[in-house]
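Q: what sequence does this backbone want?
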């Protein structure tokens, strides 16, 4: 049986990706950085091993400090500015795909909610997600 394919990209189609296989994990991040980057209460994400991903098209990179104190890299489309994925290509063993960029949004099935401590009351955590105040151990 073939591994599932998760394809997606930006609003204008200039930046695309394909992820093969099952995600390492899926969830919602409620940290302040993700809220600011998304303009929403959280970012829905899917993590994949870098070896399972291919990217095509140009990216615009923004780097900020992560909760761990290391660089957090977000990749957007330089044409339409859509937020598409996280992590420096070719420099990390995994990437986060932002679930809103999926061609088939039904592939996203979150199981965790991270950085719930300090989230605004209006950013509701869906029932059934395992919650973590910060990053999971």
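A:
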């Amino acid at each position: 049986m073939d591994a599932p394919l998760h394809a997606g990209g930006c609003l204008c189609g200039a930046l695309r990706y394909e992820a093969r296989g099952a995600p390492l994990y899926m969830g919602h991040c409620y940290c302040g950085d993700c809220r600011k980057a998304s303009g929403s209460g959280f970012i829905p994400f899917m993590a994949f091993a870098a070896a399972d991903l291919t990217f095509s098209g140009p990216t615009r990179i923004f780097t900020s400090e992560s909760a761990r104190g290391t660089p957090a890299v977000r990749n957007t489309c330089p044409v339409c500015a859509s937020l598409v994925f996280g992590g420096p290509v070719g420099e990390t063993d995994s990437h986060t795909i932002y679930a809103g960029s999926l061609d088939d949004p039904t592939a996203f099935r979150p199981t965790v909610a991270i950085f719930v401590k300090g989230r605004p009351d209006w950013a509701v955590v869906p029932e059934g997600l395992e919650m973590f105040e910060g990053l999971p151990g």
